[in-house]
Amino acid sequence: MMTSSLLPSLGYELAVLARKYGVPGAQLAIHHDGRTVTTDMGELAYGTGQPVTADTAFAIGSITKTFTATTAMVLVADGDIDLDDPVGEYLPGLEDLGGEATLRHLLSHTSGLADPDPDEAPDGFPQRHIKEYCRRHSLVLRPGAGFSYSNLGYVLVGRIIEAVTGMSWREAVESIVLRPLGIRPAFIVGPEPRTSTRPLAAGHSVNVRLGRTRPARPSLPPTYAAAGALAVSAADLAVLGQVLGDLGMPGPLPPAHAERMRTPVSGAHPFGLADGWGLGLAVYREDDATWVGHDGNIDGASCYLRVDPVAGWVVALTTNANSGAGLWREVMSTLDAAGVPIAAARRRTPLRIPTAPPTGCAGRYVNGDVEHVVVEKRDGNVYLANGDHLEPLTFYDHLTFTVHDPATGREVLGGRFLRNPGTAQIDALQMGGRLARRHAGAARTDSREGIA
């Protein structure tokens, strides 16, 4: 089936679904069999009437990490960096982490770094902020021991790129990856601000149930630019997807190194996010199909990239609303029904029959400056504190649990508790791919979500 035959119906479906989820503007790009088709709809900013076009740039959040990882892997291919050298060889003064973690660990989120609140990062030179979380006692895992999603890890990748190239991260990603691929980016934050000549979609916070749409400006400190500062179009994401999938797009990344990025790293088990993790790419598996990609969620925007390197598909969606996540779920279902085999390119965590709540869960679980407070009541039920409210948890096999989503009225995957293999005691909580270690002492704050 030719991708061009999908375009008329998909353009209509995208507009219908966007209205359903209150998304002001969106772009969809599909590549297959050597051809890319795109469709776009809506407004740059709600109520302005300024149309989204194929050239509009959307804040892509954490998909920026895939561009950063691609830049690093070009330097690996050129022999400028070794994946398994300690990061301290490139960034002196990183305390304990410098001699133990490698670029491979950073790219695959297996460095053990916490994921501190970016709003706590200084706007200037980040060395003190970085060193604070690179000490052994601040790690949530020893490097290489497991998966815990960390934006700070990609701050370090950006710093390594700068140390090796002598350029800023922004200059390096532009000159090494973006310009060779014909991508003209915008940046939502960063030093040396430049005015982009392409239109930039504004972000929105949408409450579908209330029918309310408000402006939402992406919040990201300049020090975190390598983790989430890029803005590009869905067509641009499709170009990168072709490079990562080795689908005939000439570019600076050798095919062998694109394959290394797609290969799952041993020990990287991103529960709730994907089935595995490579070097800057999530891995999704179902039956014989394997897709790779990344999600990008930041204040006011939700964007997605998926690549099937075997069957030759690339799918990219950009939206300028937090409610774009619901749009993406339905777009995948619509594409699958239309013959694009993308059903495997979503995270799946099978939940069976609910089980009795386990004992021994109560306590404080800490990742950087983020804290989750878990409470056990006399009725035997387990709750997650959310402000003054206690959210009941429904448990399933392997200490996994769901929480009630008031927006949809459904039970959604919340996370899982983990036992210490030596003591069999519950000593960790994994939510949103981030691992939080159990700590003694009084509770400080409530749980929150980070950039993803």
Task: Please give a structural write-up.
The chain is α+β, with helices and mostly antiparallel strands and about 450 residues long. The protein has 2 domains: about 1-350, 3-Layer(aba) Sandwich (Beta-lactamase), CATH 3.40.710.10; about 365-440, Lipocalin, CATH 2.40.128. It is built from 11 helices and 21 strands. It has helices spanning about 5-20, 65-75, 95-100, 105, 125-130, 150-165, 170-180, 225-230, 235-245, 255-260, 325-335; strands at about 25-30, 35-40, 60, 185, 205, 210-215, 230, 275, 280-285, 290-300, 300-310, 315-320, 365, 370-375, 380-385, 390, 395, 400-405, 410-420, 425-430, 435-440. It has a 9-stranded antiparallel sheet, with no helix packed on it. Strands 2-1-12-11-10-9-8 form a 7-stranded antiparallel sheet, sandwiched between helices. Helix 1 runs antiparallel to helix 11 (about 325-335) and helix 2 crosses helix 7 (about 170-180). The longest helix has 15 residues, at about 150-165.
Helix content: 10-25%
Shape: globular
Query: What's the gyration radius in Å?
Result: 21 Å
CATH topology of the largest domain: Beta-lactamase
Helix segment count? 11
CATH architecture of the largest domain: 3-Layer(aba) Sandwich
Q: What proportion of the residues form beta strands (DSSP E)?
A: 25-35%
Characterize the largest beta sheet: strand count, sense, and whether it forms a barrel.
9 strands, antiparallel
Number of domains: 2
Domain Beta-lactamase-related: 19-325
Protein name: Beta-lactamase family protein
Pfam family, one: Beta-lactamase
